[in-house]
Amino acid sequence: MDYREPICPFDASDYTGVPDAEPTGQRMNVPAMIRQLDQLINAGRAVKAQHFLEKKRAEAAGMGDWRAELSILNEMMGQYRFGNRREEALAAVNDALALIREHRLGSTVSGATVLLNAATTMKHLGRAEESLPVFRHVSRVYADNLDPTDYRFAGLYNNMALSCVDVGDYAAAERYYRAAAEVLRRRGGQDNDLAVTCCGLAELYDRQDPLDERVGECMDRAWEHLNAPELAHDGYHGLTIRKCLPCFDRFGFFVYARELRERLEEIRGGT
Q1: How does DSSP assign 70-130, residue by residue?
Q2: What distance in Å separates the CA atoms of residue 190 and residue 185, rounded to the nearest whole number?
Q3: What local confidence, expressed as pLDDT, does residue 2 receive?
Q4: Mind listing the domains of the chain with CATH numbers?
Q5: Distance (Å, whole) CA 235 – CA 41
Q6: Which of 3, 125, 145, 255 has its CA 20 to 30 A from that of 89?
Q7: pLDDT tens per residue, range 183-236
């Protein structure tokens, strides 16, 4: 399959309405499955994690537990995205969209959160323009159901900014990055995610002007967030390092990059 083929077009009316009742019959223990998955990811066993998800999806489908299957597809999108497995990522997006459409989950927070991940994956696949209507729909659902300081808005704004950068709408991208940072600052203790936002801003400024002094300022702030005294060096911190490392390399912060790689190895070794 060519990953550049059009992704399922998004029409909110196809995904909303009265959601279906919960699945009947045998149910998968999703929290336990996620804990097993996290252990594999934290240990740096990405390929094993992908195979684990594929096995669990087949089990969920066999049970008729579409809620569990949707949760697994949500995880698969992220794993395939990080592993640069484009065909598999596209298939996971389309299968997740099909389940949300079939069970009319598009107006629920849980369904919108999966749509957010799908839109993020579309962007990764070079389909930023197609991702933006999905992001906007998620924004409306979140606004109708969540407190404005809810953590999920930060993820929405950060990822929406990336798509705006790809389509050349730099002013909108900066607004979304700053909105994400405001949500995170108001919540407190969100240094991992603030570091990612700072890296995004650095890339945005570099795209417009490689000599912009704000690039270095943003990377210095990202480094400060990654070294916040209260920040736990856990699996999520390791994931954050993986997201930020390319920026430290790209902009010549090689000493910082080396220290982050050493820290990442320590996290993996301690899992």
Answers
A1: HHHHHHHHHHHHHTT-HHHHHHHHHHHHHHHHHHT-TTSHHHHHHHHHHHHHHHHTT-HHH
A2: 7
A3: 45
A4: 11-146 (1.25.40.10), 150-271 (1.25.40.10)
A5: 8
A6: 145
A7: 999 998 899 999 999 999 999 999 999 999 999 999 999 999 999 999 999 989
